[in-house]
Amino acid sequence: MPSELTLSVNGAKHVVSAAPDTPLLFVLRNELKLTGPRLGCGIAQCGACAVLLDGEEVRSCVAPLSYAVGKQVTTIEGLPAVWAEQKGLSTADAAKTLHPVQQAWIDEQVPQCGYCQSGMMIAAVQLLAKNKNPTVADIKDAFTNTPPSPHLCRCGTYAAIIDAVQRAAQAMKA
Amino acid sequence: MTSQTVLSPQTPLTNAITRRGFVKMGGALFVSLSVPAGFSLRASEAQTSLDPGNLASWLEIRADNFILARTGRTETGTGMSSYYAQAIAEELYVRPEMISLVLGDTDRTPDGGYSAGFLWGMYNVRKVAAYTYQALLQLAATQLGIPVSSLSAADGIVSGVGKSISYGQLVQGQHLDLKIPITGKRATIDPSAPDGNGMAGLDGFAVTGDPPMKPVAQYKVIGTSYPIPGIPDKVTGKTQWTCDVTLPGMLHARMVRPATLGSTLISVGTLDKKQFPTAQVVTKANLVAVVSPSEWEAIGAARAVAAATKWTEWADLPASGDVTKTIRAFPWDAPAQTKGNVAEVTAALGSASKTISATYELPYVRHAPIGPFLAVADVRSDGRVKVWTHSAQSQGLRAQIANTLGVPADKVVVRWLDHSGQYGRTTFGGDGAEADAVILSQLTGKPVRVQWTLQEDLAWSSVSPAYVLDLKAACDAKGRLTAFHSASYTPHQSDARLLGAVLAGMPCVQPRPGSWIATEWPYDKIPNRLEQAYGMPSLGAASVSGGLRGNIMRTPGQRQQNFALEGLMNEAAAAAGADPIQFRLDHTTDHRLIDVLNATAKAAGWESRPSPHARASKTGNGPLTGRGVCIMVRSNAYWAGIAEISVVPATGKIQVTKFTIGADCGKIINPRQLGLCMKSGVVMGLSEALKEEVTFDKSKVTSTNWSSYKILTMEETPDIKIVQISRDDKGFGGGSEAANAVVPPAVAAAIFDATGVHVRRLPLTPARVTALLNA
Questions:
Q1: B403: phi > 0 → left, psi -120 to 50 → alpha, else beta; which?
Q2: Which fold has domain B570-774?
Q3: If pLDDT is split at 50, 70 and 90, which confidence band does B541 have?
Q4: ipTM of this predicted structure
Q5: Nearest chain A Cα to B250, which residue?
Q6: Which domains occur in chain A, in start order?
């Protein structure tokens, strides 16, 4: 049965009416119109739906709404604000600044179809929060062996992702 | 509105620009299609929106210098939207960022055509831009009073003799028309069409005539790495994807698929209205779905209904382990296509002192996008149909939907939006969730969004069928090839029927089994050549679902045929005791092939020696290294791939440590995007070489998630090195395919180099490799 639950997403509070077992993905997409995370496998095997929950990646296709209550949810739409806060950017600067991971994804022209890339960027943000200077091996390990599953890209953009993560790491150190 | 010719009709380069009238605000030049005499339009269609004379313009140049370009082709993820903008900008003498593109919408674009068929698509837009440029020069000549011969343009400004005027100023205050001559026909259902996919007109319109094109030496935009226009919105979440379409009153649907590929419906499970108060079961023949205003309710209700729905038993599929046996047992008749001389090759093989024979096998694989099929449809009671799709063939899809619903094509509008890659499966205008969506929308009277699940997609979408290929070659005393015969046997590869229409028992396109010779094998020093391609129906074709509906997939046909041909080349080189690259060079005079092989070998640090390596072994617990090569010629592009691997014989585990890929695609349009396509193609090729196989039992597909249909991960991605050769004198070549297809033969050759055992079947899983080494 639907309940009224309060969610904190990308810095804003939202009251949503949904069954507590509803996967977070459907609430983000259908109720809050945050369409950055997308449905891939629906069983936490691909990463297309990944979002950050208090800075930790979760697969929103299986994470129940109730699990997100009381935590900060971040989707790719919220990444510029995360960076602005981290860097203490002025409102004017923040409005024209993307998160370095997003900027690197543009600069390296990573997306082909792009369906998996929201999740890839979420994984990159999490990795760079823990490892400011990841090697190629570190990046491969993080995108492949972090539970619950590898982040999969069918277009085969893995090499571009590796380049973009390293570019973002440099930008974030500057 | 009075039409006034402002350019003389004898202008050699263009049809006339006409002025429809003057306008107070703005002004624009519309560049649209000129329908040739005798263009096939049925009388009943002449007044509809399908009249090409009324179709949307190719180009619009507005008074504010805004340039809008339209093509019915789409961005498939390989950078088409960059290349189109670059090609138009080059011939129109503007910067690519001045151009906005409308892609793939049947009601807002003038043409159709294969989205993957970039070369044809670019051929059209380049000519449109070239015609338009000549017309703009003529306009400027009139307005500035300077002859065309004294005018030139850059960045959208025409200048000459100290005067200049922008394109926007040229159209200011006017409403101008320029008609571009075309040929071709729009996509239709045509059971007699020669390609076997049951469709005609999938090539779309082609622009005719020969407007002067800019000399390659003067290119400023082509050859630069212009970024893909849609990427910033994709990384910030602003793109509206197909899955983001929502309509007032829209229902979410989840499908309840049959228990097996051949099951028919006995009874539908009842819906517990207490648990799922707003859900509804919808059925038509064997098409079963649950719809609800809530997506989560639709998911839960569909699961509950599926568990209680009864289907007949069916077990007429050969299991995937028996595919080769099944293909062998088929009563083969004449080949679908033959290339070469049967008598000469038969004689050459019969009289040869030495021959090499081998059989190669490729399993069923599939496109397997990360985002499963999805479509939104709104079917109105007055017969109007609107479909939001990610198909790569909007016009073909429109024809299929109109055919299924029994409505005229002009009643159907297809809108294209970004979504997960298709890799060929929607190229014929079918496969996908669109039929599900329109049927459910028609039955419920509401807009319906159908989202397939991954399991459903991996079980029910079309597949790239298995191949069995028999190769035989004759060698001379030095081991050089003097004749070869290849015969490929495969199930249907052109069945792009929409599953929803098939299961609902509604009219479908009627594809025919067959096959084709896709190779352009460039070894001109082999004097006697014979290639034959045989096609049979899909496995399980007689079932109500059509069984394993075979379809094309990236580098279709050639991917499979080249695996055998290049495998044979590696085996023949080994038999001759020759270095595999030198052996190839010895069999060709084609300098483009020679150059790309040499450049790629140099970049890879290739050491000339025969395979296998002197320390090759079938046993041992330590890693053995090997290297192998493969080439391909496709769509005016030359490719070479060199794999470096290590394999542990005891475990069969292969690691591809480095892959060097070289390409000569004629004039390179966008070096960075080509490089990205080359690298990503290598990833897809490695995935096929090492991991991919659709498995099935006698009833259904069993590889239905990412644990059972494995694709390459980032950790398994090697260092990929790219080599590009750009040529100004060879036109443009295809860069989005082939890369995936040069990988498996190179990896197979590298394993032979390391172990001395020929590899003739994919995928190279540890179990298969150990079985091969122990055989």
A1: alpha
A2: Aldehyde Oxidoreductase; domain 4 (3.30.365)
A3: very high
A4: 0.98
A5: A30
A6: 3-75 (3.10.20.30), 77-173 (1.10.150.120)
